[in-house]
Amino acid sequence: MTIYNRLKQIRLEHNLSQTDFAQLANVSQPTIANWERGSHIPRREKLESLAEQLGFDLLWLLSGDGDATRRLATPYLTLAIHHVPIYHWPDGSQAIESLTAIGHFPFAARKPPAFALRRPRAGSVGARVWIIDSDNNAEPGQPCLIIRGGNYQIEPHQDITYRDDIIGPVLASVYLYRITDQG
What we know:
With 183 residues, this protein is an alpha+beta fold. It is built from six helices and seven strands; from the N terminus they run H-H-H-H-H-H-E-E-E-E-E-E-E.
């Protein structure tokens, strides 16, 4: 089966006319007819847009390999990897902007997060890293980094008061462990 056959298969499985499919791809109906006949090659950005809108796997469309339905990892694998600076957890007197990065953490996201903070875990060889977004558009219940009473804290969005200074919402948190050779 060719890419042209797979495009037609997708269109028919979604009960779309060539005109409807063309509207989704932002092309004309004759363009869709040419794609399905194999007389024109679709541009990659058009195929990516259709894959996103209709939920099929782009690799399957291009090569025929794998399953037609999008895999759960596909959206994640298409995100850019950002190297987020990590800072030690600050005390209340330190501004985030004044901290010196102790390293970088790879993080997949549509846009780069602002920074990450590392807080050692009491009684453990590990640490927790909080990845903080640069905007203040927190969802209800989403944890946020705030300054309350001169201390940096992580609080759920609904527990934040008007007196709290919101730094940004938490995108993720991970535990890091140091592995040592017990030889």
